[in-house]
Write a structure and sequence with these properties.
Shape: globular
CATH class of the largest domain: Mainly Alpha
Radius of gyration: 22 Å
Helix content: over 70%
Order of helices and strands: HHHHHHHHHHHHHH
Strand content: under 5%
Distance between the termini: 14 Å
CATH superfamily of the largest domain: MetI-like
Mean pLDDT: 86
Structural class: mainly alpha
CATH topology of the largest domain: MetI-like fold
Number of strands: 0
Low-confidence stretches: none
Number of domains: 2
Length: 266
């Protein structure tokens, strides 16, 4: 957007000042973390050599990836259905989908723990699908907490696609499903990728539900966020910060990948 005249320059400067303040604050916090780590020689090597942290990193990566696959299986049809169809109670259902976004994640873990104490929950576990204090419970927690972000992103994408294009496809011989797979879905690919990234990043960083529902058993149910908690709880602040910086680097790589794919462009 071009800026001209004194008033335009002052207005632009006032808007950008908030950008500088916010970004500068974040960078100052991260710089403090790095300065603390720099003052603790050997901590990076300790983290790199730790088999417990290797196990937590691997568990974080694969559970988050599984969550993305399962989350998109729900998010794509749900986003399309909520975007294209109106039905009794649509506003209520649309609001319920957003509940995991606004609820404290800890509530999800507590609710899951209570659910699996009910008769139906015990019946599920009796079939061999055990979730409480198991690795499968990590994926379940991540799925319930993060999928809403993907649904919302994909719904907004379908909202921006003119349904008349699907109608034209159907006049040319496509079925409703054919119009979805051949027209709407290809047009929504950027939103689907963004939705997958939102699911992954949210799943990768959750902490509260996991502590309640699956615990933090080393080499079993420990993921990187719980590693940070366990290390700082025993006074190893340097190791906790090093793991936190590792998570920050992984998140940065994901954001850079998004920019390289052009998803950050209009």
């Amino acid at each position: 957007m071009p800026v001209s005249g004194t008033h335009g320059v002052l207005f632009a400067a006032s808007m950008l000042a908030f950008v500088v303040l916010f970004v500068g604050g974040l960078l100052a916090i991260f710089a403090a973390d790095l300065r603390y780590i720099y003052g603790e020689p050997g901590v990076i090597a300790k983290v790199i050599r730790s088999p417990e942290i290797h196990a937590a990193l691997w568990l974080s990566l694969w559970t988050s990836t599984v969550t993305v696959v399962l989350g998109l299986i729900f998010a794509i049809p749900m986003g399309y259905g909520l975007s294209r169809y109106r039905f009794p109670g649509h506003a209520l259902v649309d609001s319920i989908v957003d509940l995991p976004i606004i609820l404290p994640p800890l509530v999800v873990g507590l609710s899951l723990l209570v659910f699996f104490q009910t008769d139906f929950g015990k019946l599920i576990e009796a079939t061999g699908l055990k979730f409480v204090f198991e690795r499968k419970g990590i994926v379940l927690c991540q799925l319930l907490v993060s999928t809403s972000f993907g649904i919302r992103a994909i719904k907004l994408t379908f909202d921006g696609i003119d349904p008349r294009m699907e109608n034209v496809a159907m006049t040319l011989g496509c079925t409703r499903a054919g119009a979805f797979f051949r027209v709407a879905l290809p047009l929504a690919y950027r939103g689907i990728i963004v939705g997958g990234i939102l699911i992954w990043t949210r799943a990768f960083g959750i902490f509260g539900p996991l502590m309640v529902f699956v615990g933090a058993v080393r080499m079993r149910t420990e993921v990187l966020p719980t590693t940070v908690y366990l290390e700082q709880s025993v006074g190893r602040i340097d190791v906790a910060l090093a793991v936190a910086i590792l998570m920050l680097l992984l998140a940065t790589v994901a954001l850079v990948a998004v920019r390289m794919l052009g998803l950050g462009q209009r």
